[in-house]
Amino acid sequence: MSDTILAQDHGNWVEITLNRPDRLNSFNDEMHLALRAAIERARDEGKRAILLTGAGRGFCAGQDLGDRDPRKMDGPPDLGNTVRTFYAPLVRLIRSLNFPVICAVNGVAAGAGANIALACDMVLAAESAKFIQSFAKVGLIPDTGGSWHLPRLLGEARAKGLAFTAQPLPAKQAEEWGLIWKAVPDDQLMDEARALAEQFANGPTLGYGMTKQCIQAAAVNTLEDHLELEADAMKTCGESADYAEGVAAFLEKRAPQFRGE
Questions:
Q1: Domains of the chain, first to last
Q2: What's the CA gap between 153 and 171, in Å, rounded?
Q3: Nearest to 29 by CA among 59, 55, 58, 66
Q4: What are 130-181's pLDDT values in tens digits?
Q5: CB atoms closer than 10 angstroms to residue 100
Q6: Within 13 Å of residue 88, how many CA atoms lie on the same side as its CB?
Q7: How many CB atoms lie under 10 A from the CB of residue 45?
Q8: What domain of life does the UniProt record list for this protein's source (predicted)?
Q9: pLDDT 10s digits, 229-259
Q10: What pTM, to 2 d.p., does this model score?
Q11: What gap in Å lies between CA 140 and CA 138, rounded to an integer?
């Protein structure tokens, strides 16, 4: 595996670390491919949760602009191809996983780095962390799902404000606005994030996956369609071993032993 990504196996979950700290973990093509491969490996090995974080003092500064510098190229870069080849597939992969993906934002999350975090299911951030939609500084639009997630999470006014001004949003304010799940003291971030990953990986993963897909589908479904989706999901969950175990454990007043199936 490329050393631009570190993957630590915790049994039924994996911790993946972006590892270009000298470049604030900004993406080059190698790190893109390595991250996607690490996530796909976790999926294919039957892991039940992923924790994504960054090495060093930042989470991710987005695209390494040194790799997309028009001055070093024969013509302008095809950034649409960059999105289609690298960023869009990564967002689709994270959103398609039928288990929780937790993001621990340990420092600045800028540009595509901020929006990769927003593609995850739960975002915890160190109180010193900041989210920056930095695209306007170089004449771009919020990609990596940013222009989709921001208005849905924050509303049009705040989405446009963050996108147009590229103003850093402190983690605590991001929590208050509903952009992320929680801001925590810096020295508690990884302990809390790992405990959450462990909790989810030992939980009713089938139900988590169904919950994830239902919530994500709500953005485009009509109420009528969504009620049908819920009924289908409940049928699947109700026939699962996890539901039978959960009910038995509740009635027997003991902790459930979920298998994620």
A1: 5-201 (3.90.226.10), 205-252 (1.10.12)
A2: 15
A3: 66
A4: 999 999 999 999 999 999 999 999 999 999 999 999 999 999 999 999 999 9
A5: 24
A6: 9
A7: 10
A8: Bacteria
A9: 999 999 999 999 999 999 999 999 999 999 9
A10: 0.95
A11: 6
